[in-house]
């Protein structure tokens, strides 16, 4: 069965943004997709926001209310919804698409939202500003380049957490390999330490037979959690 049980229109919209189009064209596609995005990803059974937020919550020390989080490539606010449910209240978001930011604004979950195309421009934040930074779903072929990792680190406080995800489907494997080299180099240089790299088999529904993991109809993905060094030491006594 081609299309893995997904409506053709959903399949086409997802495929369009993942195709190797130039950045302005892709941002235009995201703008146009924004209003239908959440119903489309529900059809995809897209689990990354839930999995990422759960992993970050597990690593993150209490209390959460005052912790400042940056949701990079925030889209319509799916990650914010999951973080909010887990007690995070101070959420800032950036995205390259104005259409997506409009949807995110309407959730009322973010205290601050700004347009930023990561990889093209710096994040609109001072150094060591955030207790945690999330990039869920945007680290992929033709999206946010792995060269943006130092910029994510720059805005994270020492001891702060970074939660990143990528897909393990065939068309993203080259990107994933590059990403893992970059992640490893930053770890070797002492910039951060890896707390988690969790491979997830049922990440979302595949849009084509070729992308599906062993004919399951799903693609797999991975959640990474890193902690920026130096990790603050607990005071004795």
TrEMBL record:
Domain Methyltransferase type, residue spans: 70-163
Organism, scientific name: Dicaeum eximium
GO molecular-function terms, A-Z: S-adenosylmethionine-dependent methyltransferase activity
Domain of life, per lineage: Eukaryota
Entry protein name: MET27 protein
UniProt-listed Gene3D superfamilies: Vaccinia Virus protein VP39 (3.40.50.150)
SUPFAM superfamilies assigned: S-adenosyl-L-methionine-dependent methyltransferases (SSF53335)
């Amino acid at each position: 069965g081609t299309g893995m049980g997904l409506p053709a229109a959903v399949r086409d919209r997802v495929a369009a943004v993942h195709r190797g189009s130039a950045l302005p064209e892709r941002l235009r596609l995201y703008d146009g997709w924004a209003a239908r995005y959440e119903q489309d990803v529900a059809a995809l059974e897209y689990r990354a926001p839930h999995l990422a937020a759960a992993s970050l919550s597990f690593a993150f020390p209490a209390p959460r209310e005052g912790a400042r989080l940056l949701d990079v490539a925030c889209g319509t606010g799916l990650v914010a919804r999951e973080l909010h449910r887990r007690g995070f209240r101070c959420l800032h978001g950036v995205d390259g698409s104005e259409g997506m930011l409009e949807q995110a604004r309407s959730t009322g979950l973010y205290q601050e939202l700004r347009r930023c195309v990561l990889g093209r421009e710096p994040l609109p934040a001072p150094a060591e500003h955030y207790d945690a930074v999330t990039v869920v779903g945007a680290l992929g072929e033709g999206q946010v380049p792995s060269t943006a990792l130092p910029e994510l680190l720059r805005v994270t406080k020492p001891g702060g957490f970074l939660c990143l995800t990528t897909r393990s489907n065939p068309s993203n494997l080259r990107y994933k390999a590059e990403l893992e080299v970059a992640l490893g180099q930053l770890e070797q240089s002492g910039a951060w330490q890896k707390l988690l790299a969790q491979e997830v088999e049922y990440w979302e529904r595949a849009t084509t037979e070729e992308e599906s993991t062993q004919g399951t109809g799903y693609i797999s993905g991975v959640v990474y959690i890193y902690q920026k060094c130096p990790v603050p030491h607990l005071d004795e006594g």
